[in-house]
Structures are given as structure tokens and as C-alpha cells.
Amino acid sequence: MIFIDKAILHIFDTENAQLILSDELIELNGELQTFLAAHIAKCLKRTSGKKGRFQENSVFEKNLQDYINNGDFIHFSKTAAQIWFDIIRQAENISSSDLLICEIRNDDIRYTAFLRMESKHAFSHNVAHDGQRIRNDIHANIS
Questions:
Q1: SS3 call for 11
Q2: By C-alpha distance, which of 12, 8, 10 is closest to 96?
Q3: In terms of Cα–Cα distance, which of 26, 19, 138, 137 is closest to 73?
Q4: Shortest CA distance to 64 belongs to which of 11, 101, 116?
Q5: Which contacts qualify for 25-32: CB closer than 8 Å, 24 or more apart?
Q6: Going along 14-96, which residue ranges are E strands?
Q7: In sequence order, what E strands does 55-108 have?
């Protein structure tokens, strides 16, 4: 069974070349936890997935190791989202999307999951800003 311990949402607005980084974690209520866990489970079951290795001196791998050693999930997610955004915004015809980064457990094994989610009817995002901090949330249309 998949359980999501932490999740954060960053928004890739490729039309305006803007990355909207969240300063806060998503509040995972029961319905949202179930909705997201189902999507992650689908990804884990796919046989089309490929394994890879980090390139030597990978900035992304260094960021991941810093997170594993220091445990600052929000900082890790922001750095990872910036690296990812810098790469995808160079591509042509990349639609705006959200990047959901989660710390999950599956059968007591800890994973970090990255889900790039294109806008669909099933979910949308909301950006709240209090003058100092940004909070991106997911609103799943669960029915």
C-alpha cells in the first residue's frame, strides 16, 4: 500500500516562462491522499518504465544526496523543480503543467516520486500568496 508522507506542488507556466515554487507542503486529507496514491500506484505498475543512472557530477544527484542527508524536503523540491524547469522550457511545444513531488512509502520502502501533471478535468491547482509565502495546492475533482 502506498502512503504519501509529504507532497509539494510547483507550477510550470511555460507560456509565460515562469516557475511558481511553493513554500509550503500540500495538506493531504484522506480524499486527496487516496487520489494521489492511486496515480502513483499506476506509475509504479507500468512496465514501460526505464532505469537510469545519474551522470558523473550530476547537480540533481547532489541535490538528492543533500536531501537524504539533511532532510529539507521543501528546499530539495524547489531545487529539483528549478533544474527540471530549466530543461523543459528549452523544448518546443511543452505545455504548462504542475510538478508534484512526493515522499512516499510503498511496502515500507521509501521513495521520492516526481509526477509531471498536465492540466486535466480531474485536478487543478490553486496559488495562494500572503505577501511573503506562496502555497500551491491541488484540487482534485474526486467523484
A1: strand
A2: 12
A3: 26
A4: 101
A5: 25/73, 25/74, 26/136, 26/137, 26/138, 27/137, 28/4, 31/140, 31/142, 32/138, 32/140, 32/142
A6: 18-20
A7: 97-106
**Could you tell me the pTM of the whole model?**
0.85
Cell of 11: 507550477
97-110: pLDDT as tens digits: 889 999 999 888 89
Sign, Cα dihedral of 87, 90, 93, 95: positive
Query: 19: number of CA atoms within 13 Å, CB side?
Result: 17
Tracing cell 520502502 back to the chain, one arrives at 109
Q: What are the beta bridge partners of residue 8?
A: 101
Amino acid at 14: T
Task: Give the integer Cα–Cα distance in Å for 74 and 20.
Answer: 13
